[in-house]
Design brief:
Blueprint lengths: L2 H6 L20 H7 L4 H6 L1 H15 L4 E2 L6 H5 L4 E4 L3 E4 L6 H6 L10 H13 L4 E6 L1 H10 L7 H9 L1 H24 L4 E6 L7 H19 L6 E5 L6 H5 L5 E3 L6 H8 L4 E6 L8 H15 L5 E5 L9 H13 L6
Parallel strand pairs: 1-4, 4-5, 5-6, 6-7, 7-8, 8-9
Antiparallel strand pairs: 2-3
């Protein structure tokens, strides 16, 4: 059993496991070299390239898990959504959802039909990776936000208006997205994924009462449907300080904590029966080496050696992050907390 999977199951491990969201990316020179020839769309469309990029940080950084290089929007193409991944902007949907009829027109592909190229890449990575493979999908609220807003949004005005004015259509939209994501994640597990992560990147934009009544039931349905697969299920969100108890109630195996809440406080709030993941501020890695070590050790101290901690950032690796700081972070986590003499 790997230390990563062991920690997610709250078992004793030799050292705290570490992996980093967006660990495959512009912080690695080998990735930048690939991007000189290929676009993001090229990489996610070609399983060989996707597998290579996924494994680069495992080889370079010696992290404890390989997270698939993909995008949460990819299975939406299988649902009939036309979008473009625009560099520096994010996903841009050509025809955003604006009505109940638009919701009804969305397809509901089964399993690997949502994004077959990703499933092929998962098989290749799982066959080659020396560490467990993490696969992921977007949570219904975050995917719905892109579909209704048409692109990334700060205020989420259109999706909230749709939620309040068209509650039945909103519920059908999230329900359809949840069903497709269950099949998509199950197909990734069937292809070799050993853990899954549900990305609800925009969940922090919600009032707690709206999350609990309108969104959480669909998130809980995904985790419930995946329980029989026997792989750890991680919930990821940002800006979640006001929602932690409600997120824990959707019953993942682990909850990612961002840097806005101290790890020990956040762990109390999600409950000691769940694992936690996090929660170094990504921008710390842009600071001096001594700050990287100090802040990483603070996270470890707050975890207190308890079973169930996976070290990660509170969000993804920033493109400007020096490679040597990533290497220093992994080294520091491996060393653990220095003994007090």
């Amino acid at each position: 059993m790997s230390r990563f999977l062991g920690a997610l199951r709250r078992e004793a491990v030799d050292v705290t496991p570490i992996w980093l969201m967006r660990q495959a990316g512009r912080s690695l020179p080998e990735y930048r070299k690939i991007r000189e020839r290929y676009t993001l769309e090229d990489i996610v469309a070609e399983p060989d390239l996707c597998a290579e990029v996924t494994l680069q940080p495992v080889r370079r950084l010696d992290v404890d898990a390989a997270v698939m290089f993909a995008d949460i929007m990819l299975p939406l193409r299988g649902m009939g959504v036309d979008f473009e991944l625009v560099e520096g902007v994010g996903p841009v949907v050509s025809t955003p959802i604006r009505s109940s009829q638009d919701v009804d027109r969305l397809g509901a592909p089964d399993g690997q039909e949502a994004a077959p190229q990703v499933i092929t890449a998962v098989r290749r990575v799982a066959a080659e990776s020396p560490v467990p493979v993490i696969c992921f999908a977007g949570a219904p609220w975050t995917l719905a936000s892109y579909l209704v807003e048409g692109q990334p949004s700060r205020q989420h005005t259109m999706i909230k208006q749709f939620m309040y004015r068209e509650p039945d259509a909103f519920d059908r939209l999230l329900g359809k997205l949840a069903r497709v994501m269950v099949g998509y994640l199950a197909a990734q597990v069937g292809a070799g994924a050993q853990a899954v992560q549900l990305f609800d990147s925009w969940v922090g934009a919600l009032a707690r009462e709206d999350y609990e009544s309108r969104v959480a039931p669909h998130t809980a349905a995904i985790f419930g449907a995946l329980a029989s697969l026997g792989v750890p299920r991680i919930h990821f969100g940002t800006g979640t300080a006001g929602l932690l108890e409600a997120i824990a109630a959707t019953r993942p195996d682990a909850v990612s904590l961002d840097w806005r809440v101290p790890l020990d406080d956040g762990w109390v709030r999600v409950g000691g029966d769940l694992a936690v993941q996090g929660n170094l501020e990504p921008a710390v890695l842009l600071g001096p080496p001594e700050l990287v070590r100090e802040r990483a050790r603070d996270v470890l101290r707050r975890a207190g050696g308890r079973r169930g901690h996976v070290f990660n950032l509170g969000h993804g690796v920033l493109p400007e992050t020096p490679l040597e700081h990533l290497q220093l972070l992994v080294e520091t986590v491996r060393e653990g907390i220095p003994a007090v003499v």
